[in-house]
Amino acid sequence: MRPKFINYIKENPLLKVTSLNSGAILMKMMAGLVISKLTAYFLGPVGIALIGNLRNGQNLINTLASSGIQKGVVSHIAKGKDKKKFLQILTNTFFSLGLLVSIVVGVFIFAFNAEVSHYIFKTNSYAWIITLLAISLPINTLNLFILSILQGLSDFKKVIYINIITSISNLVLFSILLYFLGLEGAFVTVILLSSLQFIITLFYARPYYYLFENLKLFYFPKKIISSLSKYGLMTLISSISFPLVYLGVRREIMLTLSSTDAGYWEAMSRLSSHYILLMVSVINLYVLPKLSAAKHTKTFKETVLEFYKLIIPFYAVGLVVIYVFRNFIIRVVYSEEFLPVQDLFLGQLIGDFFYILALVMVYQMHAKRQVKRFIATDLFIAIGFYAFSVYFLGILGLEGVVYAHALINFLYFLLVLTIFRKPLFSHSKL
């Protein structure tokens, strides 16, 4: 029985990627859980809320610096991975674009570091953290692009090894700096982790150094830039709107309830991010390259159904287990001080389930550059979540935010299912 099961995994590409990736995700989850425990012990709910604000701000700035084209890089590389000269042209374009935009954004962030600090932390005291973020932007952007190239080339093992080593490095660095520098040490780790990962990425990307031969600065082929701009527009809308929405919701919680309650919500969100990470990484590693390289509409239906059949049942069971053991999880990951978080699990888990159901379909919009559809659905979920959160917060208190999360993700799933009803339920073309 066991050999047959192992052979079944090896023969199925989706399960093979998932099983390989599980080790990396498990390591990242373990590192993240230990980091959450340390943060809870040394900084409490308020510290967790502030780190959440920094992460949202950093994600927003990193997306601007990378022009939001990471998925475009994966898609273009996947389509041309058998053409060496074309790959070199693509790499040259990504390098030039990333370097130029990240420097421009970095200079802007550096010039307005005090204002950015006040927006994120409600104080100018951390302007130096924003300066550090601005300086690291070019390195962070190039790291994102090289990782995207490896994904596009379907070199999953290297991406997985990079993620494992990065997780271990993150845990070690965070623990040391948090112990000696407190909250500021935690901030520094959040900012510098991508730069540290860049060194690791360069080591594992050695077989592909030929892509950087004859590299030219400021190389912008019009056709490629035009194509990438569509991916950039899609990702920018998503990556700007969601961090802003999360910052806005966290502020509403602080104003309506307290900073401690904002920390409870961030603690729930951090737990959610750990298991969501497994699902998103599988979609990024397997689904996006496959959909990007697909030449027939039926591939979309086959890929979605394969994901639902092989992955979603395990995901659903995992969510049930998490809910049953929520009290134990909180005590292990955080502390008894965070026990009020257990009231937030039901709404969060329901929302996360429908989010993944929708997300695997949404990646077809990235793969086929369906810009209008993607922007419309992303704005729907972002604006809807903020509006429902503010409304339910006044009625249900902190639990209202997670039920807003559940409601908007259920509606999001129905909307996406409606959009793709023809390719999923008939033989019609997209």
TrEMBL record:
It is a multi-pass membrane protein. It is found in: Cell membrane. The chain crosses the membrane at residues 29-51, 89-114, 126-147, 159-181, 187-211, 231-249, 269-287, 307-325, 345-363, 375-396, 402-420. Keywords: Cell membrane, Membrane, Transmembrane, Transmembrane helix. The keyword Transmembrane helix applies. Its main location: membrane. The keyword Iron does not apply. It holds the Pfam family Polysacc_synt. This is O-antigen translocase. It comes from Mesonia profundi.
